[in-house]
Amino acid sequence: MSTFDEIKARIDIVDLVSEAGVKLRHAGKNYTGFCPFHDNKHTPAFVVWPESGTWRCFGQCNEGGDIFKFVMKREGLDFKEALRKLAARAGVELKEYTRETPEQKEAYENLRKILEDAVIYYRSNLFNNQEILKYLKEKRGLNDATIETFGLGYAPAGYDHFLKHFLNKGHAEQDLIDAGMLSVREDESQVTGQRSFDRFRNRIMIPIRDEHGKMAGFGARIVDPNDIPKFLNSPETPIFSKGRLLYGLDRARKPIRAADQAVIVEGYLDVIALHQAGYENVVSPMGTALTEDQLRLLKRSTRKIVLALDPDAAGQKAILRGLEAARSAMDREGELGFDARALLKNEARLQADLRVASIPDELDPDEIVARDKAEWQSIIEAAKPIVVHVMESLAAGQDLNDAKVKDQIAAQVLPLIEDLPSPLERDTYRQALARMLRVDERVLTGAQAQGPVVRRKPRLGGQSPRVEAPVLIPSTSPTFKVESYCLGVLFRQPEMLYRLDRRLEEFGLSALALEDFGYTDHQLLFDAVRQSVEQDEKEYPLFLTSHLPEALQALSQELLAQNEKMDPLEDRLLDDLTNRFIDLRRTAAQANVSQLRFLQEDEQHNGGLNLKAYQKQAIQFTKLLQSLDQAKRKLSLKRQA
After folding, report:
1. pTM of the full predicted structure?
2. In this structure, which topology does domain 257-391 adopt according to CATH?
């Protein structure tokens, strides 16, 4: 049993939720109560499934998960913090992952030398390719000086140009692999020895340096629009860690100090274009959500940080999806994760001044400065505090005369306000919210003060309150086992992921997503597989060591060593995976439909305020079941053909 499974087995989700102040009652095999994450005293829309060890809110939150997700959301913790907290509760010892020491990192200077040589190699290829140069100059608006300053280059098409060039220069093949410049085709290694090939092919190359200007890796943009992924970073290496680097910071540190402000944008080419336009205090993360380590890097130069996000990433739609921006497959490295509560938490911890500037619709920063350099300055000067930005984004296009709209906005903004450490800020934002909603501020204060109803069961002999023991622990749940098997297949054959996505889409279903897995550990592991595939990642052990805590590293090894046999024929294996994921979705949808029937019955006795909302959800899940059944029939016919 993995450390993760041991924690799940020792903690009863019913106890955990009850101790958080949620009064649970039976609803069939399950339990219902009032959701602790939003103010609702009318309908018990919060459901706990003891058999699977999961929960879901069918009300305003529309979220769910397991014990880890519950603690993360309830206490505003990240995964590692929740893991430590629950491990302590369960009495399970965690082994901490230790970073490389400075002495160990110094041993990798040879890797940096390889990367520096690679910059020269790619640059020479760029200046021998007039078509790529023309694209950078005419399409992206970059001049010769900028191209030279940022060391832009071009990786030629073909699988062994880089490999042959650097082997001829006397570099060891393993060093080129360790530097992240070669990938290894593992399926042929046992037959012909380790066979490697160029990681970057037919791409515009963007050198990525750390804050001191030392080479760390590369970002690469496609030339052929049919290639995937559109942007490809170096893999995780001892000198390249996406969560601890900011692109452009080596050149932006002094301008940031001079302006006493740092601006964060989404794309590498946006950073380059803005620097060329004279805005040199601009940086970008590595296509992932902003981390605390990255904010700490900026804090060394300034406490004033502006997030310049486009409306899709920071606007109303993202906020209503839960204040998180989905990663994009469009022409950019990825979209910044916009989690207001996490940003506010970091702002308080780092004593920073975080603000959000919205970019006009359908425009990238390089397009803005191309048409009017002064416009960018106006956009940054108009940046607003996070809470104000959230308030205005939620209110945009809404009927603020509608009492329900007011209630919905207040329910999402008030928790953000309460997260603020300063009483003066809290009071100021409550007043601003009251003015915007045109309500008495005392109503907002009263709503926040009351909060969810907290009724604890009396403890006997110092023991935790307990409603009833769950029927199964999560690790023995059928759903858990199917998820584990499917995840194990994807770990061993990650290339199946794209084929599986296409197969699901052919059957009229959406591609695989985190929501297809009901457990936080499975979601994190699936996300690692997805990122690895999108990065063309072949070095999975190194990738997982860099991205996952010890408990999940052990679980990943278990998945790789699964005993259950896979069908040796890829087509049949693809059919099997498709069938299992359809079944997983069907099981989840059926459980939701069944639970919504209970909620509708309760709602009819409680005035029916949310009856239509539950009926709408039930119809959506019923339609999903019909689509899944239709896909199941198509798959069956395909197998028979």
Report:
1. 0.54
2. Dna Topoisomerase Vi A Subunit; Chain: A, domain 2 (3.40.1360)
